[in-house]
Design brief:
309 residues; mainly beta; 8-stranded mixed beta sheet; 7-stranded antiparallel beta sheet; 2 helices; 6% helix; disordered N terminus
């Protein structure tokens, strides 16, 4: 099994047919994962901040300083930091801080989250409006902290949903590499869809490595299982980082899928990334109509939050 040396995408795509959402791939190309870097690389800090390095041991004092440095001034009435991004105004809050040592350096992994505000200063919480996720990595650089990598306005969940402390966690992704697992959920029109995004530092950027579906159900969808309609599907995916692997950069991920698909029992196992198409064939499977169907991995594309044009 190959180690994922940077950024990959599953090649399946999600599309709707006859009003029923389902995972469909154009071909059994799920294993055609796109690698765009050769491994994790913590670049030397791009710039210093005005945040004293001594605050690295004081979470209560550090987080407000980080929020001010990256998101602007604190609004007492809204209890958040007000920032501008691509024409939009955002209300941002600190979510969590984790500290780890990697390659002999102390690394501070900070998570922020928030919502875009409308013209009257109210949170935008309708279906099309995404909450945002901010990921920041700092390290001591002399007197002040230095910036290793950031992504400040990553689109999160619809209805203005943004991460909570228990939905984003730090994960060791390789022998000397850490990143975040962000759990997201969407429930609409009888469909339930949960997935996990994996982020890590590549060079000077925080990069989305992959997106893995962890749960999908169409059991409550209108018309599901009736004549002429798709039968119910309920799939759960367990993912395990293979920490005993000899990978030098990122650990491989093993996916185990169970449940029912289109009314039939389904089980599958797959590695991410895979060495060949056959590696993921159990996970993909073939439907009765001969179509390849992706059952365990959602497309790895990212959605960035954008303000009004």
């Amino acid at each position: 099994m190959l180690d994922y040396g940077g950024y990959w995408r599953a090649a399946g795509e999600l599309k709707a047919r006859e009003g029923i959402m389902k995972f469909v791939a154009k071909s059994i190309a799920l294993a055609a994962l796109v690698l765009v870097t050769t491994g994790p690389s913590y670049a030397q800090p791009l710039r210093s901040t005005s945040i004293p390095s001594r605050l690295a041991e004081d979470e209560k004092r550090l987080l407000p300083e980080v929020m001010t440095a990256f998101y602007g001034s604190f609004d007492r009435a809204k209890s958040c930091w007000i920032s501008k991004h691509e024409g939009g105004t955002y209300c941002m809050k600190p979510i969590r801080l984790d500290a780890r040592s990697s390659s002999g350096r102390r690394m501070l992994f900070i998570v922020a989250g928030g919502q875009q505000l409308d013209e009257e200063g109210r949170p935008m919480e309708t279906d099309p409006s995404l909450g945002v996720l901010g990921l920041i990595v700092l390290t001591p650089r002399g007197v002040n902290l230095g910036v290793v990598a950031t992504t400040l306005y990553e689109g999160y969940e619809p209805y203005g949903g943004y991460p909570q402390r228990d939905t984003v966690s730090l994960q060791q992704l390789g022998p000397n590499t850490y990143g975040w697992l962000a759990k997201l959920f969407y429930d609409h029109s009888g469909y339930e869809h949960a997935w996990v995004r994996v982020y890590s530092v590549i060079g000077r950027s925080v990069t989305l490595l992959t997106t893995v579906t962890s749960y999908f159900s169409s059991g409550e969808a209108s018309g599901c299982g009736t004549e002429g309609q798709e039968r119910r599907s309920t799939l759960s995916v367990k993912y395990v980082f293979e920490t005993h692997s000899s990978a030098s950069s990122f650990y491989p991920i093993t996916l185990r899928v169970s449940g029912s698909y289109n009314g039939r029992p389904f089980r599958g196992r797959c590695g991410v990334p895979a060495q060949s198409e056959s590696r993921c064939s159990q996970l993909v499977g073939l439907g009765s109509d001969g179509e390849a169907r992706t059952l365990g991995i959602a497309p790895g594309g990212r959605r960035r939050a954008r303000g009004p044009k």
